[in-house]
Amino acid sequence: MRRVLAAVVVTVAGLVALLSFRTHDNSSERTVASPLQLPPLSPGEHAVTGRAVITVYGPVQVRLVERSRKIVAVNIVQHPAETAMDIQIGQYAFPRLVGETLTAQSARIDSVSGATYTSGGYIQSLQSALDSGA
Amino acid sequence: MRRAEPVMGTVVSFDVPAQAAADGALDDAIRWLHWVDRVFSPYRPDSDVSLLAAAEITVDGCADEVAEVIRACAALRLFSGGYFSAAPDGVFDPSGYVKGWAVERCAEILSRAGSVSHLVNGGGDIQCAGGRPGSGEPWRVGIADPRRRGRLALVVEAADSAVATSGVAERGAHVIDPFSGRPASGLASVTVVGRSLALADAFATAAFAMGPSLARDWTESLDGYEAYAIMPDGDTWQTGGFASRIAVA
Q1: pTM
Q2: What is the pLDDT of residues B192-240, one digit of tens each?
Q3: Which end of chain B is more exposed for a tag (fewer CB within 10 A), N or C?
Q4: A90 and A81 in contact (C-beta within 8 Å)?
Q5: CA triplet A6, B152, A114: central angle to 5 degrees?
Q6: Are A89 and B243 in contact (CB under 8 A)?
Q7: ipTM score of complex
Q8: Tens digits of per-residue pLDDT, B39-91?
């Protein structure tokens, strides 16, 4: 669980870094975080919800779902969703970071698309790890 | 169940129902890939494609599929303003089309045999049928980050869809800009998502050859296909409908 919490911290730190990257056009009015509907947990799954972190765009909160000590999902509990910039963040940056977190665990991904690998390159590829059930 | 088959200079990975392995459909699909390799490989001196390129035979002397591929390549060349080419180095080599086409056909072989849920990954280009076994949720396909080996840029959902990526990561610069004759280098990778892998793969190759500014407008114009590109400096762009393909959790 400590590793999971470390992952929460890394993810939130990534979000904060990203969200802080550009100045906001409309910084006098703070956006209100939109609570998102979270998928229900399946039997055997445990969720860890991180504390909301206040960013220049508003509060950001992440939930990790764990099963058999592997992260199987990352849910965004709340994120800013009012301005055009925020929409861009919601659609692009959040899923991007979610993807990176999942990569670290090689979890819940069925396959990997990338530039064509050779038979030799396959051995070192993520796809090879997936095929061997790692 | 999973299976990985070395063929066509790469490895083709399968995720198929146990039934497909038991009833011979998976073996049929794999046999098809080896047949395609024998007929279309430019690295085999006795392949139809090699003999055709050397003008030792005509199309009439080739397998019927060779004419099918030539017609498709000609259509794609027109459609892409010349950026997709079956002779990027001046020598007939339809490899840019054949792999995606062969893998899509492979998935069709499994479908015809009764499978409603499978995924075939031909060296990084993927054709999915249905969704995940059991749950029917969309397949989740990670897009490799060309700038950081072993990491993903993001994850897309692909139910009954294809995901193809062209890039420089694994084989070095291998997509030739047919107009300059030199390797294209303006993009680190471009991924195209849509129904058919043959088309998605060809679109990704053409977009990669175009370079970022042309590729962005062109991929935006493609009906039913969405694109996501990563630039050499790590910046990214995507077509309008791509966001709806991104897996959120």
Answers
A1: 0.72
A2: 999 999 999 999 999 999 999 899 999 999 999 999 999 998 899 999 9
A3: N
A4: yes
A5: 165
A6: no
A7: 0.89
A8: 999 999 999 999 999 999 999 999 999 999 998 998 888 888 889 988 877 78
- Residue B246 is given by DSSP the state B
Tally of residues, chain A: 134
- Return the ∠ at Cα A39 (arms to A34 and A42), rounded to 5°: 155
DSSP single-letter state for residue A51: P
Distance CA A9, CA B62 (A): 60
Return the residue of B nearest to A37 by Cα.
Answer: B249
Which residue is associated with the tokens 């993903």? Answer: B152
φ/ψ bin of B211: left (φ > 0), alpha (ψ from -120 to 50), beta (otherwise): left
Torsion angle of the four alpha carbons A47, A51, A54, A58, in this order, in degrees rounded to the nearest 10: 40
Residue B147 forms contact with A (CB below 8 Å): no
Taking a C-beta distance cutoff of 8 angstroms, is the pair B119, A111 a contact? Answer: yes
* Helices and strands (H, E) in chain B, number of each type: 7, 10
CB B197 within 8 A of CB B126: yes
Dist CA B52 CA B31 (whole Å): 23
Q: How many CB atoms lie within 10 A of CB A87?
A: 13
Question: Would an 8 Å CB–CB cutoff place B230 in contact with chain A?
Answer: no
DSSP SS3 for B64: helix
pLDDT tens digits, one per residue of A88-120: 444 444 444 455 555 544 447 888 888 777 776
User: Of B97, B154, B191, which to mutate for an interface test with A (greatest number of A Cβ within 10 Å)?
Assistant: B154
| Structure token pair of residue A63 | 């939930």
List, in order, residues 6 or more apart from B202 with CB less than 8 Å away: B76, B80, B84, B96, B97, B100
